[in-house]
Amino acid sequence: MADAVTGPASYFPSIEAKYGRPIAEWQELIRASPLTKHMELVGWLKSEHGMGHGHANALVAATLAEGTPA
Hints:
Pfam families: DUF4287 (PF14117)
Shape: globular
Number of strands: 0
Radius of gyration: 12 Å
Organism: Geodermatophilus sabuli
InterPro entries: DUF4287 (IPR025629)
Structural class: mainly alpha
Protein name: DUF4287 domain-containing protein
Largest sheet: none
Distance between the termini: 35 Å
Mean pLDDT: 92
Number of helices: 4
Low-confidence stretches: none
Strand content: under 5%
């Protein structure tokens, strides 16, 4: 039996279902944004993409935790 997903990734299935984009696409948008601070990115996802706070926060947290690709 697989371990239950916890943390920000636990939101990913509902984010994909609700907003119609795969997580990788959301993460590309976040990385391409000129914004760099966590709450700036959360606010941007909420205002520009209509995302709820919890979903935006989870995406930004997970993306920033991964760092930026070389």
